[in-house]
Amino acid sequence: MRHLCFYFQVHQPYRLKPYRFFDIGDDHHYFDDYANRTIMRKVADRCYLPTNQVFLDLIRQFPGKVRISYSISGTCLDQFEQYAPEVLDSFRALVQTGCVEILSETYSHALAALKSPEEFENQVAAHRQRIQELFGITPTVFRNTELIYSDQIGNMVADMGFKAMLTEGAKHILGWKSPNFLYCNAIQPKLKLLLKNFRLSDDIAFRFSDRNWSEHPLTVDKFVGWLNEVPQNEEVVNLFMDYETFGEHQWADSGIFEFLKALPARVFSHSDFQFSTPSEVADALQPVSVMHAPFPISWADEARDLTAWLGNNLQDDAFDNLYNLEHLVNNINDPQIQLDWKYLQTSDHFYYMCTKFFADGDVHKYFNPYDTPYDAFINYMNILTDFSLRVKQLANSTPPKPAKVSRKKAKS
Fold it and tell me: Per the domain annotation, does 410 fall within a domain?
């Protein structure tokens, strides 16, 4: 039997409120509570609750055979507790079936791996602790923010004790090789790599409801037929996507839930694939080759690089100014400072500053709450200026302490 690995990213950022230059020094609350509550409730009702119920029903319908995995950011878990506790309960119910794996990641869906190994490790440790608190498990597989990966990032992940990591099956890295095998890190081969099959993943995540797509409508018969066209020697097909695909990006009236409900039965009856979690794939298969990724890759845009978040002057300036505060923040024992520090690192803030156009421009416009990337930059920098003033004031008034980031519960 070959392996079909379904993985879903579950993430919501703490969105920033409009913050004027004149608010600097006076207003230390940076987040749009109304927007965060409203969006979480909307996505919970459209996506999280109904999709979790579909998977719970499928797991019960096919005992032990439907197996899936999630990575849930700390910012999302915090918002579940604040605004949608029943969603958290529904994820707990899924985990308790024994058929669902929860992966580890950075707490705040951060880009720390690209800037600070110490902060990266702190974020991962905080997330691991949070998963242990909420679900009673310790993850053994890692998914970095937006599948960002390089040889060096993989090396850091291996040093933290993970046995496997997820990333993108980027063409410019793989060349002629197929993503449908298990690979390993170039520095520490003990770290196994599962690579996203982006064509089959994106058929569901992006093209499902596109009436201009030549393959529309996508049926389970057609999709399983494509799975069967994968050469027999290729051992695993990794379908990685945002969980909001179901009910939010692809609305219920598109037929996405009917597709999801019918897929397992068709896979079992008309293919040689079995559903497996990432850790099960890592345990069952041996790497066929080292994957060399000297420069970071991601699952974003056509280039599969970092330019969705970093690379233009706005993004780089904001990113550098944020992490210039790291050494000061690590010496401050203030719960609110530590919480704001985490939330300000969320990658979405830099995504909103993207100035890319052409093939990727519509995607960035669609997901962006700001009118322009310059508005996003100005708003973020106003907030960062106020945060910096607070940090420097506290750093000058408190003695140094060992660098440590521990989770602090979000304020309602």
Answer: no
Domain span at residue 330 reads 313-395
pTM over 0.90: yes
Same domain, 251 and 322: no
Note whether 271 and 323 are same-domain residues.
no
The domain tally of the chain equals 2
| φ, ψ at 305 (rounded to 5°) | -125, -155
Domain assignment present for 169 = yes
pLDDT digits (tens, 9 = 90+) for 325-372: 999 999 999 999 999 999 999 999 999 999 986 344 444 455 578 999
Residues designated as active site: 146
